[in-house]
Amino acid sequence: MEKIRRVIEQCLASNPCSVEYRFNEPMSGHTSFKVGGPADCWVRPLCGESREDSDESSFEKSFAFAAALIHAAQRENIPLFILGGGANIAVSDKGIRGITLDTGGWTGVICGAAIGAADCGGPAEMVFLGGTKSDEAADMAAKAGLGGLEFLAGMPGCVGGALWMNARAYGQEMANVVTSAEVLDFSAGQTQRRIVHTKKTEFAYKHSPFQNQQWLILTARLSLHPREKSEIYKTMEEHRRDREAKGHYLFPSAGSAFKNNHSFGKPTGQIIDELGLKGLRMGGAQIAPFHGNIIINTGGATAQNIRDLVQYTALRVKEACGFTLEPEILFAGEW
Fold first, then answer.
1. What pTM does this model have?
2. Beta pairing class for 253-256 and 225-226
3. 274: which residues sit within 8 A by CB, 6+ positions away?
4. Are 214 and 186 a contacting pair, CB within 8 Å?
5. Which of 28, 92, 134, 256 is catalytic?
6. 203-245 tens-digit pLDDT
7. CA–CA dist 11, 78 (Å, integer)
8. N or C: which end of the chain has fewer CB within 10 A?
9. Cα separation of 112 and 249, whole Å?
10. Which domain holds residue 13?
11. Are 196 and 177 in contact (CB under 8 A)?
12. Percent of the chain that is helix, strand, coil (3-state, to 5)
């Protein structure tokens, strides 16, 4: 722990900014499943929602600190885990070793009609900090009279995570709106910021070009379109009511437990339901009685309960149907 403390203090000395950090931080408070043991050290750089200084903004300082921290962790052989909105992960009951870098302090719009910035590619572009909550991003776009993010309304997680996963709902996905992202590339033992321009053809179902890379998404540039605010808000409220009616907010969960596969001929939730598994419990984890492809924490579930239920469900489907289900839940930490 002292080694990690020394690294953080050194990075702060050379890159002063606002940072929260705590040792032995329970990860149950940082994930939508509400499970997970302690992170050795949880670190969240903070920044405001607009440029504060004439020479260097608060988010620029925060990014510089993150770059220094990642580089130092690599140099000192300290494990590093990057946490987004925590909406599709289950952290081990044993916790996460090393440093957990939480991007949730990077919120807001740094470019776009919402703040009158002039350095965007067009009047309908907005650049969001990666830690901005997906639902809040939809609200910010709506406030600016821009459509395109209505499908994010009511969705948990953050913009960076939505981009990484190519989040989709109601016939729309992130691939339809993103044009580029700024990332912190730490793949070669160095840390450098660069712009990654994207093409829709690089995305697929639950897949993006940001996966399998040692990149930290800092910002996302989204191309939207003017739309009547009343129509935007109407669509967003419809999506939120639909999610609520489907039970998405009744219990802690990570949304869909498994990816859908069109080659199976039917949705994963239907396959699980037809096998009579809906409602199955392991400890405090349960396949939701209202949806076969959602695993919920009914209260007191452990991360191991959730993982065991995922593995058992996949095994039953394999035995009965020959299908290999691919978990959408990411299992993080020391198992």
1. 0.91
2. unpaired
3. none
4. yes
5. 256
6. 999 999 999 999 999 999 999 999 999 999 999 999 999 999 9
7. 14
8. N
9. 31
10. 1-106
11. no
12. 35, 25, 40
Split into its structural domains, the chain has a count of 3
Among 55, 85, 106, residue at a domain's last position? 106
Give 222's DSSP letter: E
Same structural domain, 16 and 53: yes
Q: Is 134 an annotated catalytic residue?
A: no
Asked whether the beta carbons of 306 and 234 are under 8 A apart, the reply is no
The number of residues making up the chain comes to 335
Q: Indicate the pLDDT class of residue 120, thresholds 50, 70 and 90.
A: low
Q: Are residues 201 and 256 in the same domain?
A: no
pLDDT tens digits, 272-314: 999 999 999 999 999 999 999 999 999 999 999 999 999 999 9
| 231 is an active site residue | no
Write the CA distances from 161 to 239, 283, 321, integer angstroms. Answer: 20, 29, 32
Q: What's the average model confidence in pLDDT over 122-139? A: 92
119 Cβ contact partners less than 8 Å away, ≥ 6 residues apart: 111
Out of 150, 173, 182, 328, which one is annotated catalytic?
A: 328
**Amino acid of residue 274:** E
Alpha-helical runs (H) found in the chain: 2-14, 58-75, 134-143, 159-165, 229-245, 268-274, 303-321
Q: What is the pLDDT of residue 147?
A: 97
Residue 304: both structure tokens together: 């191991």
Residue ending a domain, among 210, 245, 280, is 245
